[in-house]
Amino acid sequence: MSVIEGRQTAAYEGEIVVFLIGFRINSLRALKAWLPVGRAMSPMLRELSKDPDSGLLGFRTLPTWRGVTMIQYWESVEKLEAFANDSNRTHRPAWLDYFRNSFKGGGAGIWHETYIVPAGNTETVYGNMPPIGLGKVAGVVPVGQRGETAAERLHRPAAD
Q1: CA nearest 98: which of 79, 84, 114?
Q2: Whole-prediction pTM value?
């Protein structure tokens, strides 16, 4: 990715859902518990990436030494829930498999957090960076187009 010089901000202005999801290896010896969990995410991301109507706008994977954390950006909570609950898509069967085979014994853990961010409540700045995060999802514009300060970009009064 090419670095964009100067200060940029994400061009995104609508409501967005930020979904954090991850898994953790609780016991290195419990390979049969955590390996299927670790392998389940890639097929889901491939499926979502091939479907422009899925609602997934973009994601970033952050590996840790005991697992993975992923930041996902979604168009709406309804589309996120529709994917999660559709038995004909990859998530629901993987979720059921986790509870049948990996949950017992605690060898592998999973977690998620969902944040619904109303329009006008995001603030981003990227200084001499390639597109990343929300800026990668929506593209970037020079900071001055949305406000020179974080308060201006959030349409809030400046602190004294």
Answers
A1: 84
A2: 0.90
d(CA 155, CA 160): 15
Sign of CA dihedral 150, 72, 98, 28: negative
Whole-angstrom distance, CA of residue 64 vs CA of residue 120: 32
Residue type, 136: K
Distances 98 to 41, 90, 103, 127, 153 between C-alpha atoms, Å: 12, 13, 6, 41, 42
CA distance 8 to 146: 9
Query: Residue 127 above 70 pLDDT?
Result: yes
Query: Residue 70's CB: how many other CB atoms inside 10 A?
Result: 17
